[in-house]
What we know:
It catalyses: L-seryl-[protein] + ATP = O-phospho-L-seryl-[protein] + ADP + H(+); L-threonyl-[protein] + ATP = O-phospho-L-threonyl-[protein] + ADP + H(+). This protein is α+β, with helices and mostly antiparallel strands. Helices cover 31% and strands 17% of the residues. The chain has ten helices and ten strands. It has helices at residues 3-7, 59-62, 67-78, 111-118, 123-142, 193-196, 204-219, 229-237, 251-260, 271-275; strands at residues 16-19, 24-34, 39-45, 51-58, 89-94, 98-103, 145-146, 155-157, 163-165, 172-173. The strands form three sheets. Strands 1-2-3-4-6-5 form a six-stranded antiparallel beta sheet. It has a two-stranded antiparallel sheet with strand order 7-10. The protein binds adenosine-5'-diphosphate.
Amino acid sequence: MTSIEQKEADPEIPDLIVDNTTGTTYVKGRFFGKGGFAKCYEITDTKTNKVFAGKIVSKKLLLKSNQKEKMMQEIEIHRSLHHDNIVQFYGFFDDPNFVYIVLELCRKRSMMELHRRRKTLTEPEVRYYMRQLMLGVLYLHEKNIIHRDLKLGNLFLNDDVQVKIGDLGLAARIEYRGQRKRTLCGTPNYIAPEILNKKGHSFEVDVWSMGCIMYTLLVGKPPFETKSLKDTYGKIKRCEYRIPTPLRRSQQAVMMIMSMLQGEPSKRPSVKELLNHPFFSCGYLPPSLPVSSLTMTPRFD
Ligand code: ADP
């Protein structure tokens, strides 16, 4: 950044946010978090008192290269989605300084915080979370959308501990049957080998990421973790991981992870096939989880 740019003070997000297109006014409430571009606040519609998450992006940040186009692509994809396991998109608008996206509020943060607190989850919990994640991803894939950045931090939780997939910033639409995407601007967390090898990629990358998510939830750390990104990428390309043996894990869980973490994308099962995997029927699948399970191991008896 040049010194001239540094001198200009960043505009502040107003306490009253007005959507001139609909005449709706929101009161800005508590700060939720900050991502690569966006700041997220609780916002309340002054007329209805309904509370939402407001994802707010400074227009200054959108001036660089193709950031504006990327954000429009995210909005274009997200606004077309309606599913219980996907953060609902309610609208977007702007003022001279900011772009605002109005989203379903997920007050219980994300599965990243859950993982930090609990490290490993019980198999019934993993069944619960993986099923909801897969129902959301099935919906995306049936609409020809690949998420491309499924990770714990993008799996938000509402007050009822329901999974809501969010942040469609790297999502892409498959335009014709069999299309392989060649480019991806950004660094997905649980990146699939075919993206690293630039071989062309499609829906299978989401299955790979879900394999990494399931592994992390059961083992307590990601499958290809090393001290450097270079080493991690090497391990991913060689599909080099192991599931530690002190197994309190069911064979079905191990089999499901192994089916998803296959180097060859065409060998991975589809989301539909995964939802029928014996893992989901070999043990207890809770219909709901108590909020206390976000911090303490729940007992199912
Ligand atoms: P970016 O696209 O800039 O990375 P994110 O979508 O990751 O932005 O959002 C930034 C932060 O805002 C998240 O880490 C999270 O703390 C919070 N956040 C995002 N969406 C919601 C939501 N729907 N409900 C509650 N908090 C959210």
